[in-house]
Amino acid sequence: MEKYSLWSLAKHALSDHKGWTPAWRNAPPKKRYDVVIIGGGGQGLATAYYLAKKHGITNVAVLEKGWLGGGNTGRNTTAIRSNYFYPESSNFFDHSLCLYEGLSLELNYNIMFSQGGALTLAHTPHQMDMLERWSNSLQLQGVDAEMMTVDKISTRLPLLDTSREARYPILGGFIQGRAGVARHDAVAWGYARAADNLGVDIIQNCEVIDILQSSGRVQGVKTSQGIIQADKVAIAVAGNTSVMAEMTGIKLPIVSAALQAMVSEPIKPVLDGLVVSPTVHAYISQSDRGEILMGGRADAYPSYGQRGSLPALEDVISAVLNMFPSFSRLKLMRQWAGIVDLSPDTSPILGKTPVTGLYISCGWGTGGFKAIPAGGDTLAYTIANDKPHDLIAPFGLDRFAKGRFINEAAAAGVDH
Ligand code: FAD
Ligand code: PYC
Hints:
It is a single chain. The protein contains eleven helices and 18 strands. The protein has helices at 6-13, 42-55, 87-101, 103-107, 125-140, 150-156, 184-197, 241-246, 310-323, 372-385, 399-402, and strands at 32-38, 60-63, 79-80, 118-122, 146-148, 172-176, 180-181, 201-203, 208-214, 217-223, 226-235, 255-266, 274-277, 282-286, 291-295, 332-342, 349-352, 358-362. Strands 1, 2, 8, 9, 10, 11, 17 and 18 form an eight-stranded mixed β-sheet that branches. Strands 5-6-4-13-14-15-12-16 form an eight-stranded mixed β-sheet. It has a two-stranded antiparallel ribbon with strand order 3-7. It is globular and about 65 Å long. Strand 17 and strand 18 (358-362) form a beta hairpin. The protein is of the alpha/beta class and 416 residues long. Flavin-adenine dinucleotide is lined by residues 38-44, 63-66, 70-73, 75-79, 207-208, 236-238, 240, 244, 259-261, 295, 338, 340, 364, 366-370. Its EC number is 1.5.3.24.
């Protein structure tokens, strides 16, 4: 690998992008693979990496219809936390957080993970009770969580309106100190480079237009670059999941809708970590570049239209100004949307499907960036062994038939 010195950084900065070593090969598709993964987002790339790294399965292709990380992985607000209510979820998401803690080293790629904490606010006595229960439940699972008084919150966040005159006065909150943010592109690129180094073929501009099966067993995929045969196929296409699953006759309980976010002009550091208010329906953090990053709930209307809308921006901005009135002086710089895959209980759907050799990773909705390492690790295990990893056994598609929902709507932060 190329060694970086100040001199080489300066040379690259002035090189007009010429002579750079690509981070992964531009692989032409082979006729057959042991495993084909559809979707070059974080989930697909991490699955490919762990298949190669932990299970020695390297005859693997990741097929991406656009560019790597151009879906939700490159559009999200990068909150990484494991403060989910039910043990099934907190165990899974804490495994992910632990993997994130070592990911820059594991991939030899700086994913810029910084653990500034995630603070959830309560505005009513009922919410305070809920947060107490929630943080107690986390502590019982060995996951860090701490209740915060208003005084402590106001010391941490001097710009937050903690007065009794606020429209929704804050009564307290709870914080997960190990929560944080990472650079989203770096997570995708780090996994892609590491998977490529282990022999995985990454094929961009390759849209899957059909999934081939015979006698209830997957045979491969039909793509914009021709037919590719495979013993096993995994679907990791986020908001496009129900369309893709329907190609195999599987109807999924997934609704696709736009989730929007926005950033202000950059300012000096004024915010520590992530702040979430389920009451005003907004969350906010400050990026490394200084932008104030804001978002809220997914659009109520199902759609594949990956664009913004003024009413959603107005909702989020008015919610944020309830909390941080001084931000009314900021200029909005950019907004964007991604199409998220919402499941009925706000938990992911991971594992085997009724078609032999076909696996699925979806239902991540508004929260699958934090789950990229654990989603990839556990789906790779499931594909390699054709048996669900213990951590994801509760998240199988069969839970809807069995009525074993894992309703994490509250832990999604703002209701979705
Ligand atoms: P994606 O990254 O969307 O990857 C799927 C890929 O499949 C895409 O690149 C797409 O082009 C490709 N694809 C689709 N159809 C085909 C096809 N037919 N053939 C080939 N390729 C195909 N999560 C958090 O944990 N924390 C957050 O703070 C957070 N904030 C969010 C904010 C916003 C605005 C949005 C939109 C999402 C947010 N999320 C967050 C959710 C998170 O981004 C997603 O859950 C996560 O990125 C899902 O990863 P993925 O790899 O499954 O999907
Ligand atoms: O999952 O923590 C989260 C999140 C924050 C904003 C969007 N998703």
